[in-house]
Amino acid sequence: MNDAAAPEKRLVLIDGSGYIFRAFFALPPMTRPDGTPVNAVFGFTNMLFKLMQERPQDDLVVVFDHGRTSFRNDLYDQYKANREEPPEELRPQFKLVRDAARALGLPVIELEGYEADDLIASYVKKAREAGEPVVIVSSDKDLMQLVGDGVEMWDPMKQKPIGRAEVIEKFGVGPELVRDALALIGDASDNVPGVPGIGPKNACQLLTEFGSLEGLLANLDKIKQPKRRETLRENAERARLSYRLVCLNDEAPLPQGLDELRRRPFDPKQLLAFLQENGFKSLAGRIEQLAPAAEAARAERREQGEKRFSTLTSLSELDAVLARARDLGRLALDTETTSLDVSRARLVGVCLAVEPGEGFYVPLAHIDEFGQKRPGQLDLSEVVQRLAPVLADPSVLKIGHNIKYDMGVLAHYGLEIAPIDDTMLMSYVLHGASHGHGMDELAKRYLDYDTIPYEAVCGKGAARIGFAEAAIDRATAYAAEDAEVTLRLWQAFRPRLLEERMLAVYETLERPIVPVIADMERWGVRVDAERLRRLSADFTQRMAEREAEAYRLAGRSFNLGSPKQLGEVLFDELGLGGAGKRTKTGAHATGADVLEELAAQGHELPRVILEWRQLQKLTRTYTDALVEQIDPDTGRVHTCFSLAATSTGRLSSTEPNLQNIPIRTEEGRKIREAFVPAEGFVLVSADYSQIELRILAHMADIKPLKEAFASNVDIHAVTASQMFGVPVEKVGADLRRSAKTINYGIVYGIGAFGLAQRLGIPQAKAKEYIESYFRQYPGIKDYMDRTKAEAREKGFVRTLDGRRCYIPEINAKIPSRRAYAERAAINAPVQGTAADIMKRAMARVWRALRRELPEVRMLLQVHDELVFEVPMEQVAAAEAVIKPVMEGAASLSVPLVVEIGSGMNWDEAH
């Protein structure tokens, strides 16, 4: 029998901001494969991992400064004013050390307006009130004020503890007088003034004699040395100011409670991916040795978790859960249905959770192998009746993952959900397109939890069954887990939105758009099936004509859809473009860029192939597919808008994709003619005019462009005039077209090669055009350089509203990848800001129409355009609401202009 007592669990608060600087200067330069410096990250990660091994029973938390300013700057504007900017090689490592801590499964704490020291002091206070001992990992002298009963420090560089004896050794006084000593001594690194001529030795003598700073200042007449006495008298207020500056604010709001800081096993796969990305091979090897034990711990935890999921089989049990939701003010929910298509999905069951660690499933429509309803299920109408008041209760927050889908499903039963939070969108705001936002992936990454796979309940392949056919006991673990995991993701992401200053993006742009999109998907858009069939026949005939023309030009028949056969014809037989480009497999490249280049050189066959491909795409994607996607119950097409799929915040459309219908071609416009309003209604299109150019003019502060927009003149003619030295009234179509191509190309970071291809001019001439453009508008070049530098430093750029657009390969060693990333970095703030403006406009227009014209329906959002279905007699009234709201969706130094039109089909309205 082992009588040794288990070691006491401690809260270990790691001063991340202090350690990264020490690690940076202590270790030699290191870079990862893409050239990013990582010496501080390596030291930081190594220290954290070592601490985790040495303190397996303790809760480890990493605390950072949020920025360079805090409330102390309000007290003294020169606080930290003499600090130099961090070294260039250190800046990209600030984000990476936070990533390292999260990869190790450790909480990361920071808060705007407070330094790490204040947060550490506040957590020390809270932990000691709870009777929990604390270790502060830091050698920062300011934190020595906190050493005392149940609180010690650990110097990670010298690998030794700092207790009361060590504090006295350093200052000559105990921790209770460290603040007084610092007020007298001052601190050159933080620009804390102190009292001139008073060093540690003198401060110790004075405080030992007079007991405190105020005791000293109240007894200045007792100081024997005249010069010291006068110095103290003259600088008494400086000392008091310094006393306030070195004070640790232990009342700082805590971003996470103590219960949220408890130790969790790390995810070996996530950690290994981080270490490998940064080239930390030795650390990766050590982690791999520990992986089996971590996997076993996770499996055990999951087994325990599955036991906490239960089936609700009585209304009294459901009422009890809903009552708890009202008491706590929150309810995580999910729906299990018959289809992923929200317009056709019907309820099979409802999943609920109110507290982490338990989840509930309400089965409603499970059937056996004979198609009979399984016993033990509640009546759908009674469950709907119970849910309705809670789902509509403004005091109960409803939490979902992609809750737009659940809102659409529950709307079939007359249920409205408000207010809501969406963990998918929280993750999207925090992480952008840096990874996926499916619940299973997020649970793995951020909760270290393996969710039950769908196949474990419903099988796979030919033996796969629908969820309604699954046994209720098996369905319960899977379904209730969804709601419980969603609740835990909410608890993990919600404080991070505040910590990382992303709450406004979520609250003002993402969350308000959810009910808007749910409505749009539910309404759908009416499509004229007969017109599409006629178009399909026309396109098919024209494809046959292009095919015959291709055979004639090639001198033989071949499969136009085969890249291999096409490459042989173009390059081996006809010898177009020399040897041509090759794919990785050695075959001839025949992509659109290759064919466009050949067509620009005057070759007919590539042009014919491009036309044939366009017609084939339109037929397959739209004229044939749209007919199949018309809902037989509504006579409409119900597209799905993806809210978390793009790197810039733009919405995307799938099943079908209505955002890629070409609008500059005759064929694309014909497809738009097939989108029609319901009887008695008209389609109204509201389109932002040149919004990205307007945003660029604002962001880059380009005075000539801003003046042109303010005067509502032809912006492309103005650009042509200023670039080519021609009066605006004499700018011809060719010059205007060139200026327009450059204007829009610059937004996308176009180079000389790309511009030459678009304008059909020599590359040297295109280079001259771009250089002329930058001379005319130097602010654009400054903006581009500034944006690329920001991307290289942080790994992301921001929109005007603060959305992060991640640029993963901005520091890539391969020049082509790096150049592509730089172009993306230039465009992302502009395109992302346009997306943010559109989202804000959609939410505001939706609310205004519900209030003033509830019969008007918002149907589609396509890039810079919104499409509405409006009763014929309300067109003027609707336009009077829509246009001013959209134009007022952002405050820029240039006006936003919305062009609005109406018609009996989409093309006519646009």
TrEMBL record:
Gene3D superfamilies: 3.30.70.370, 5' to 3' exonuclease, C-terminal subdomain, 5'-nuclease, Ribonuclease H-like superfamily/Ribonuclease H, Taq DNA Polymerase, Chain T, domain 4. Residues 668-874 form the DNA-directed DNA polymerase family A palm domain. Belongs to the DNA polymerase type-A family. It comes from Benzoatithermus flavus. PANTHER family: DNA POLYMERASE I, DNA POLYMERASE NU. The keyword Repeat does not apply. Single-chain monomer with multiple functions. In addition to polymerase activity, this DNA polymerase exhibits 3'-5' and 5'-3' exonuclease activity. The lineage of its organism: Bacteria, Pseudomonadati, Pseudomonadota, Alphaproteobacteria, Geminicoccales. This is DNA polymerase I. InterPro entries: 3'-5'_exonuclease_dom (IPR002562), 5-3_exonucl_a-hlix_arch_N (IPR020046), 5-3_exonuclease (IPR002421), 5-3_exonuclease_C_sf (IPR036279), DNA-dir_DNA_pol_A_CS (IPR019760), DNA-dir_DNA_pol_A_palm_dom (IPR001098), DNA/RNA_pol_sf (IPR043502), DNA_polI_H3TH (IPR020045). Its EC number is 2.7.7.7. Keywords: DNA damage, DNA repair, DNA replication, DNA-binding, DNA-directed DNA polymerase, Exonuclease, Hydrolase, Nuclease, Nucleotidyltransferase, Transferase. Pfam families: 5_3_exonuc, 5_3_exonuc_N, DNA_pol_A, DNA_pol_A_exo1. The keyword Oxidoreductase does not apply.
